[in-house]
Amino acid sequence: xxxxxxxxxxxxxxxxxxxxxxxxxxxxxxxxxxxxxxxxxxxxxxxxxxxxxxxxxxxxxxxxxxxxxxxxxxxxxxxxxxxxxxxxxxxxxxxxxxxxxxxxxxxxxxxxxxxxxxxxxxxxxxxxxxxxxxxxxxxxxxxxxxxxxxxxxxxxxxxxxxxxxxxxxxxxxxxxxxxxxxxxxxxxxxxxxxxxxxxxxxxxxxxxxxxxxxxxxxxxxxxxxxxxxxxxxxxxxxxxxxxxxxxxxxxxxxxxxxxxxxxxxxxxxxxxxxxxxxxxxxxxxxxxxxxxxxxxxxxxxxxxxxxxxxxxxxxxxxxxxxxxxxxxxxxxxxxxxxxxxxxxxxxxxxxxxxxxxxxxxxxxxxxxxxxxxxxxxxxxxxxxxxxxxxxxxxxxxxxxxxxxxxxxxxxxxxxxxxxxxxxxxxxxxxxxxxxxxxxxxxxxxxxxxxxxxxxxxxxxxxxxxxxxxxxxxxxxxxxxxxxxxxxxxxxxxxxxxxxxxxxxxxxxxxxxxxxxxxxxxxxxxxxxxxxxxxxxxxxxxxxxxxxxxxxxxxxxxxxxxxxxxxxxxxxxxxxxxxxxxxxxxxxxxxxxxxxxxxxxxxxxxxxxxxxxxxxxxxxxxxxxxxxxxxxxxxxxxxxxxxxxxxxxxxxxxxxxxxxxxxxxxxxxxxxxxxxxxxxxxxxxxxxxxxxxxxxxxxxxxxxxxxxxxxxxxxxxxxxxxxxxxxxxxxxxxxxxxxxxxxxxxxxxxxxxxxxxxxxxxxxxxxxxxxxxxxxxxxxxxxxxxx
Amino acid sequence: xxxxxxxxxxxxxxxxxxxxxxxxxxxxxxxxxxxxxxxxxxxxxxxxxxxxxxxxxxxxxxxxxxxxxxxxxxxxxxxxxxxxxxxxxxxxxxxxxxxxxxxxxxxxxxxxxxxxxxxxxxxxxxxxxxxxxxxxxxxxxxxxxxxxxxxxxxxxxxxxxxxxxxxxxxxxxxxxxxxxxxxxxxxxxxxxxxxxxxxxxxxxxxxxxxxxxxxxxxxxxxxxxxxxxxxxxxxxxxxxxxxxxxxxxxxxxxxxxxxxxxxxxxxxxxxxxxxxxxxxxxxxxxxxxxxxxxxxxx
Lengths: 786, 298
Known about the structure:
Chain A is an alpha/beta fold and 786 residues long.
């Protein structure tokens, strides 16, 4: 990396995240003045415009790509209309050990005097919790599921190539055309559409104003600049910001800046889950790269420098601080921007290019927390690209993760997307499949499947509290066969999912009603044409997901029960449940028997893998096709982020030998320590899951560095991945680090500030994790080749 | 050959091949260093050699053994009154581990075929190793033949100490021999491994003449066999052997010492140290000087 990038990179790395009340204050000013004057979408568009007109503009020394979410790098905005932090929340943010944010006195004062008095009782979170049904609260508090919509806006958005073809002025023209065509005589929704379109129109103005203010500042700085080289750069920045986002970009630099303005717009109007992602960044930039090389306005080094500047910008936007259960399920600064590389083009040809390799180099050199990066591997992806990815993986950051582009196409076509749209799609957030630029992809929260089994084994009582939190499905003493038990599990599952979906639908409709995303709707296909918001069925595709966790733990627990209770009769179900509810106290021999003498998932053993398939099928049958406010749009995906730790803390000991409070299995990975036959057995087991029926699965593999060393190690990695993908695998990611290194990092955290490890669908700094999560990473089985 | 072996050989002669049994002490998946590609290594129990630095000392005896790890024992009493093998099978804590189980060719093939897609993707296959795989000749040949019927690449990792007749029957079913050469000096070879090297070196020459593909492998152990004389002797010998595609120098690893102490076995060499990279590089250069392609590592 060159001197500029090194400097910017180190500044970004060393800056501690801070909290900024600026956005909250501006929004409160606007709402106090204007609430009640406009229809909601117009209000949202104008509010966004007000913020863009007033917020602090920052251009740092040496920067080429400009724009920050907050008033300075790594300052996070807050969104009191969604979650209004209390003074106590802010004080905790400031003082907690991990994932702290510095909070200034004046911000606390602003919250006390202005923000809290206005938003308390008006925020989405306050409104939501005011009418949650008791049966939902019982299951929620027991740790049976979580709820994404309770404090951040739904969403999981990646873009397609739209913004490289059309500027805001083009989109404003489209909006005007649709408004002109509205049929107020026959279309009962015409007025609502007109309001939405007007809100979109104001949102386009907002980002153009935001860019223009950068142009003005850059111009002013250029006038005062003595260094002629920097003066020229600032003039160029002003020129770029005057052109994009108003118009489609003309060159590589403008293309990168275009995306960044759009990105900032979407994460300033609302606090959507999993930020925002450019989707196939390399494919979007490749035409500008080639054109620039051809006309002599760009070289490889310059392109790499601009991508590096962009990378650093993403790292400057930590996730806004979360509270409560959500902080526990997703405790990280990472805001999950996940860049897709390689994969397929719309016409089915290979999407990799020189830009793919440039981005991989940037990823490898900068070693920053954000953005995420993944390589979409199709059968058409050259091995050389996969090896280039493997070389970066070997350095142990956990990046890039690898996805099966061909399965991702199938997953999308199964739920009705066209072949071309599916190819343009990819992954956002952690592992979630979506049609980039064309879909509202709403995640609703995690489901603790081992807890659902626990409810079946305790007749609806939560053994952690002794409270009846679910329906009665029979005393386990009366389960004569394994199928009797399984039937009770399925009944519990149906009840839990129904209870969750009822609330999910309620929350989804509240967003459509109160918090339309009028800017995001401009850049997602068909919202303008339909005159409808991203949250209200505007996009071409709309889907709702429940993230199922703990397939390893539940499979192994059922396998232990089947074998030791029903097949071999060594222990009664009653005695086994009693032992787990007492956390195995006085029963170590029984615990070790189930732990050591049960076929477990992850070993390519059909005894366990058949049970896994049965559970997976039950999850699919119970959830897929459930009704949302837009029709049968519910599907499953299989990931846990860090929620397997939170769920573990809420779950009693399990029949696979796990102790109370320990994490449940992560993603779709085997239980920690249960996979005992190496990585090929793990991927064979995973390959038996019909992953095409999901919106994504997540497989963590921890390798010791020695396994991946040399050409043989790299070839082994490539071939393992290729084979897994032939078997229908969706995703695999690698932590390449040895236990001694991690132990040393625990003892000397200051020496390991930069040690990135793969946590779930993302990487995090090991020393930023709390003890519990650190132990969890260490406990994951390290695969050793012989 | 022990009495037990002879008994098994005699029984095997009357069985259909798929029912041929042998004693296996481990099946390892995702091995990358025992031949090309991703492989499965089938470890057959029993070895005619007893090398001081053996990495699998529990594999030397032909009979099944129960290994005890006292630190795992929770004194639950599950083993009370049971014979050794039943006690190992019933031990909840896996403090007693049974090393060596009787398996049929079919059973082993079922385990192998689970990995077929990895072989096909990577150009890998099956490696018979040990112990000494040719110490159970009927089982080894039956396994190799079954692998070839399924179009799998086969490798035999051998210490070379077997009757030539045994090598001869493996030839049609073996794509690659990983052939260990421990020492060129007969006296030292006897001292460190318990057997003479004459038959080993003869077998290597005959294998080459028979057209086999061979990777010669030398465990590279400072203080044992890394002196210049031994290296030159080996270079002079290997340069004339046909069929040797490459020589692998396998750096000594201290895991061997840990294993001996885990199983309470006597570790004869006392203390050995892994070679330096420099020593390995110099040895490789010396061998290359004889025109032998030399690779450091497996």
